[in-house]
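ATP synthase subunit b
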Amino acid sequence: MKNTVTKLLARAGVTAGVVLGTPVLAFAEESAVGPDILIPKMAEFIPALIAFLVILVILSKLVWPSVLEMMEKRQQKIQDDLDAAERSKIEAAEEAKSYEAKILEAHHEADAIVAKAKKEAEEVRSAVLAKAQREAADIIAKAHGAVDSERHKAMIELSSSVVDLSVEIASKIIGNDLSVEEQRKLAEKYLAEVGKSDGR
């Protein structure tokens, strides 16, 4: 800005020199050619030149600083706006990176939740399957126990019937040589031996 002021003052000085030099040449030629209506007389020129210089000084002291200050403020505002735009651009890029990181983190969390849900579902399925297998084994064991119990009961009933039948047959075959009690003991002994041989 100071360079601009210096240039403007230099131009004003050159202009003043030209203005000062022109009347001298004009007045020098007046005697040879005659008065020119466009060239001012010396009596008019001096006050006009003084007025011009006064206005120039007033403008350079009062107006130019305000104009230069306004231009400097304008330039500073433009620079501030450019800096603010650059900062906004950088902040926007940082926010975009932050959002991308948050989205990536959300994807990871979602994957972890899905994996956890799958694992828990597999554990529940395994627990239900194990429980069902245990219950099935219990039912089978109870069924075997019931079958064994019924079989044992049937064997006892059958043994009793066989003993009675054997006693009856033996009494018919042998006659009355053995008492009923002896015949029963003999039949039970025989059945016990048969049961042992079947158990082998």
